[in-house]
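[job 0412] stage=fold_complex status=start
inputs:
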Amino acid sequence: MSELTLTVMRLGFLAVLWLFVIVAVQVIRSDLFGTRVTQRGSRRGSDRAQRQQASPPQQRQQQQSGGRGGGRQRRGAPTKLVVSEGTLTGTTVALQGQTISLGRAHDSTIVLDDDYASSRHARIYPDRDGQWIVEDLGSTNGTYLDRTRLTTPTPIPLGAPIRIGKTVIELRK
Amino acid sequence: MSSSTTSTTTISTAGPPSRRNTELAMLAFAVIIPVFAYANVGLALSDEMPSGMLSYGLGLGLLAGIGHIVVRKFAPYADPLLLPLATLLNGLGLVLIWRLDQSERLARAAASQGFAYQASAPNQLMYSAMGVAFFIGVLMLLKDHRILQRYTYISMAGALVLLVMPVFFPAKFGARIWVTVGSFSIQPAEFAKIVIAVFFAGYLMVKRDALALASRRFMGLYLPRGRDLGPILVVWAMSILILVFETDLGTSLLFFGMFVVMLYVATERTSWIVFGLLMSAVGAVGVATFEPHVQQRVDAWLDPFAVYETGQGTEQIAQALMAFGSGGVMGTGLGQGNSDLIGFAANSDFILATVGEELGLAGTMAILLLYGLIVERGVRTALAARDPFGKLLAIGLSAAFGIQVFVVAGGVMGLIPLTGMTMPFLAYGGSSVLANWALIAILIKISDTARRPAPAPAPSPDAEMTQVVRP
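[job 0412] stage=fold_complex status=done
writing structure:
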């Protein structure tokens, strides 16, 4: 066997051996598991869709418009959402242009421990102009703004009570 | 989810559900490399493709394939790298052993000493098959590694028996690490390392709080209470006894090192490492001063080339060092080195010298990295494991594996005195191959449990019916 062939094979073998090591390290890199940060709504979208036909498609769609509204805050716009009645009284959520989902589903932004709330009851999101909108997601018992039951997405005036079951929330500055 | 969260992101555990296809691809790669090496050796030695290449490749592929199918069935979420790494090392070991079988020098040396020279590669292939069978057996029979926890003290007794047994059998090559029954001999220490890891894990899981918390602070170190020193003293005494009665530095170092690592992991106290290093140094020096066999090994380590001046002792270490030296960076090429000059134990204890000569520094580093990756996967498994017993067991097994590689490689390269241990998977020896396949199987089982996605959450309130407000 010629010297050249043997040299090529010798170096080739070393190259292949190292290639294996490198590929193995790549596998490890792609295998780093632990915590993963996902946007809510897209993660469980598929399996929820079968159980609750009503909300997820809209919710996902909502995510995008919610993102667009972010960062653009007008003067006098509400900065936080406050729970003023119900088991979660006193809870506040800062409004940062994200969609806030309300319901008994444990992946809601505000998980309502309320027998009269649906799992995906309502959501609150900013529209393109940064105006906060509340929308009922086809809940069983309805969402009330002041005293009127919501039928369409409705802008929320500052300080107006939104009632969901036994829980009341409002937007404040 | 707390309602004070300010953004709609969810942080969840994200385990890729299964990496079996990755494992299969890596496994195919891991089978091709040894076949390539085999062709390489054949071409270098006799200018033709070795006749057994196809059957060797098929055999190795078959073993790996069966292993893979069993992993798919019994440990579907297991780590994707452990099996390919073990297969690759085992396959390369087979090629290296076969390559040394072809050496006329070794055959002549054997003939001159009056015993029939027999090829080791077929035996090693049989051991590998047995090893994979063992691997499959462990995967199938061990439903959950936590079952082992029940046998904490039984495994202590078992490990003691395994460790003490060789004392009653005649010494082979200067060390009493063999149990010989008829023509059949095993090295119980190889199996003892797994059994004792089970004991340490079970014991430390229960006792770690006492060991970690009850301590005084002194000069930046946490000094454990006197009575908590008990277990480490007992293990230390045991490893010293092994050293004295079995004259085997490797086994003694392996057990003590493993215990110190597990103690450190269980308690997070650096002081244990300091104590462990001090105690092992004191013990090793103490024993080396009066035990002739150990002394001999230490002398050979301090001055490996003295054999050429005095004509006494063994030239194995000197030959191994010269093999590494003549290999250089790129090596001489498979089948073209002279590492068979090492003579006795060239294909077992000293097999790394063949790697060093024929694959050079580059190849040796790659092989050591492969070992490192196995240890890394073991540690990663320990990190991911949810139960403390599994964590400690995984860390103990990977520590044992890593320490064994260090002890052998260090011995062959002249970093520490040579010991009678074998390079896992690479070296010739049935006990070693069997025990290490079992070790990999347990690690795979733990990693399967660790990476298995968490079971679906219990039905939550949102699964209940919403009550309807009746006006």
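[job 0412] summary: Residues 80-172 of chain A form a domain with the Tumour Suppressor Smad4 fold (CATH 2.60.200.20).
[job 0412] exit 0
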